[in-house]
Amino acid sequence: ERERERERKMPFSRFGEVNFIIDSGSPLVDGAVDGFLKIGTVAATRAVAEDSYHLAKRGSISTKDVEHSLKKMCREGAYWGSAAGVYVGMEYGVGKIRGAYDWKNATIAGALSGAIVSAVSSGNRDKIVMDA
After folding, report:
1. How many domains does the chain have?
2. Is residue 46 part of a domain?
3. Which residues form the signal peptide (predicted)?
């Protein structure tokens, strides 16, 4: 019975016809990986759709354009996936520390995640505060 309850709480992901459960043994890691995969996939898909539109509008496609699009897809997917993973991990950690799971965790996690992502990407103090 405990195993069933644990499985219900594990992140469950679905990509088209592929279903999988993430189970590292740590809910923090499971949630962060799940967030990374889901949001990273969305960001990569968005980058491809955006570039496809611009290439179709222009009317020509070169090898350089495809290479640029693939690099952008990987970069955007990794960036947004990492940001989502940090946020989900922070939200879980704040909940564990506070001992409550409510909207305040999301607010605190959002501020901390914004500050961390901004610090890693820019290092500008004013930008870090604004992003938080």
Report:
1. 2
2. yes
3. none
In a domain, 110, yes or no: no
Scan for tokens 């496609």, then name that residue.
61
* Entry pTM: 0.72
**Residue type for 4, please?**
R
Count the neighbouring beta carbons within 10 Å of the beta carbon of residue 37.
19
The reply to whether 14 falls in a domain is: no
Among residues 40, 11, 37, which one has the least CA distance to residue 25? 11
Residue 33 belongs to domain spanning: 23-60
* pLDDT above 60 (res 9): no
Q: How far apart are CA 13 and CA 4, in angstroms?
A: 17
Residue 94: the pLDDT is 92
Mean pLDDT of 109-119: 88
- Tokens at residue 128, please? 């870090």
